[in-house]
């Protein structure tokens, strides 16, 4: 067993704010728009006149977007579209023992996308969530983002995606409003998107009533590096993910004493940076799989040979590829599992917005199969199940 020093839990966990967030959700459920307006004034420091942006504002704000940014969005839009289209599943069917069966994929009807905001805005998140939702065929897409005036890039992307509504709200109160509905906010079937610990705590709490994509935030990066890695590039990757805030969880695991010392000298004292020296790459992989990070970077001489050994990671970049490429334009989504959730799920795809509807048609099934079903139903004590099957086919 390898010994290494890391916090037992992530430095900042959404579990720590569950009680506060539970109170916010309860107030939104009880008071609706009034609670949203009060919390927005308290936490985001602006007074909402209209919770939902009108079409004139959206069009006006979109027209303010710089041409270079608009062209960049269009290029990235096409790249992400191709990636997510490649994953769309076909309807399938078959048959055996006189039973015809199959699966028809249907989109979720109403989806809410949370786009973090505040001092900065994150139109890339709307691209990452909105494009797979649109490709999947979601009929109604709504966006919640905390901004007194809709960001021009978000306005432009919303028009391209045919977003049904933009709500100028954020935090746990926005998640509660999307989950339960208010006078101004449409209740949705599923909520997706990253955010701070209050947003993630809210998603966790409302998941008993509405679907969520998972827990996405705060940001995490683990880098596995050997002597072949460029220390400046690795340090840049760690610092890049650190831009998401001081709650980011940033880990370097290396076999190289030189790399460890060099990168340590390039990182600030503040922030959640952890550096682990290991004896070999297998030890590094074991630690990375234990952490199950959001982002994993394999900066080694033969990264593809190591890919098969990775079992837990939200998204992986190999060799000299920067994790920031996934954050913006590579194709795979940047809305990724954190808090160890990469042990059982991955990043957002069209499958997050689709439901498999199974169907069966059978007029003359094989007698042995029917008999087997009736025997097992009787064994479990479900006699009417058995009789219901037998009444048709015996």
UniProtKB/TrEMBL annotation:
Alphabetical UniProt keywords: Amino-acid biosynthesis, Histidine biosynthesis, Metal-binding, NAD, Oxidoreductase, Zinc
CC cofactor note: Binds 1 zinc ion per subunit.
Gene3D superfamilies assigned: 1.20.5.1300, Nitrogenase molybdenum iron protein domain
Pfam families given in the database record: Histidinol_dh (PF00815)
Cofactors (names): Zn(2+)
Catalytic activity annotation: L-histidinol + 2 NAD(+) + H2O = L-histidine + 2 NADH + 3 H(+)
Position of the signal peptide: none
CDD domains assigned: Histidinol_dh (cd06572)
InterPro entries: Ald_DH/histidinol_DH, Histidinol_DH_CS, Histidinol_DH_monofunct, Hstdl_DH
SUPFAM superfamilies linked to this entry: ALDH-like (SSF53720)
EC number: 1.1.1.23
Associated pathway: Amino-acid biosynthesis; L-histidine biosynthesis; L-histidine from 5-phospho-alpha-D-ribose 1-diphosphate: step 9/9
Enzyme category, top tier: oxidoreductase
Family of the protein in this entry: Belongs to the histidinol dehydrogenase family.
Designated name of the protein: Histidinol dehydrogenase
Taxonomic source organism: Acidianus brierleyi
Gene encoding the protein: hisD
């Amino acid at each position: 067993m390898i010994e290494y020093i890391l916090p037992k839990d992530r430095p900042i966990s959404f579990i720590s704010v569950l009680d506060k967030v539970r109170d916010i959700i309860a107030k939104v459920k009880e008071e609706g728009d009034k609670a949203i307006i009060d919390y927005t004034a308290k936490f985001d420091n602006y007074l909402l006149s209209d919770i939902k942006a009108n079409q004139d504002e959206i069009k006006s704000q979109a027209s303010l977007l710089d041409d270079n940014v608009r062209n960049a969005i269009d290029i990235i839009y096409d790249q992400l579209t191709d990636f997510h289209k490649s994953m769309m599943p076909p309807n399938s069917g078959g048959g055996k023992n006189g039973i015809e069966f199959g699966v028809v994929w249907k989109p979720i009807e109403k989806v809410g996308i949370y786009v973090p905001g505040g001092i900065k805005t994150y139109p890339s998140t709307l691209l990452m969530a909105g494009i797979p939702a649109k490709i999947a065929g979601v009929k109604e897409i709504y966006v919640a983002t905390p901004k007194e005036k809709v960001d021009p890039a978000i306005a432009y992307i919303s028009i391209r995606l045919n977003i049904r509504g933009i709500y100028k709200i954020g935090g746990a109160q926005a998640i509660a409003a999307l989950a339960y509905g208010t006078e101004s906010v449409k209740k949705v079937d599923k909520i997706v998107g990253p955010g701070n610990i209050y947003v993630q705590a809210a998603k966790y709490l409302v998941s008993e009533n509405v679907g969520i994509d998972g827990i996405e935030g705060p940001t995490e990066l683990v880098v596995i590096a050997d002597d072949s890695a460029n220390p400046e590039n690795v340090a840049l990757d760690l610092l890049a993910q650190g831009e998401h805030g001081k709650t980011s969880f940033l880990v370097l695991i290396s076999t190289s004493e030189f790399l460890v010392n060099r990168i340590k000298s390039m990182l600030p004292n503040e922030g959640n940076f952890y550096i682990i020296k290991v004896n070999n790459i297998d030890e590094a992989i074991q630690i990375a799989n234990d952490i199950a990070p959001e982002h994993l970077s394999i900066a080694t001489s033969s990264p593809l040979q190591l890919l098969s050994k990775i079992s837990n990671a939200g998204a992986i970049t190999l060799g000299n590829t920067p994790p920031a490429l996934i954050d913006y334009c590579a194709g795979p989504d940047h809305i990724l599992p954190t808090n160890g959730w990469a042990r059982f799920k991955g990043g957002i795809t069209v499958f997050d917005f689709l439901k498999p509807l199974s169907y069966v048609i059978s007029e003359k099934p094989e007698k042995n199969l029917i008999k087997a079903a009736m025997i097992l139903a009787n064994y479990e004590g479900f006699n009417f199940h058995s009789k219901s099957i037998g009444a048709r086919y015996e």
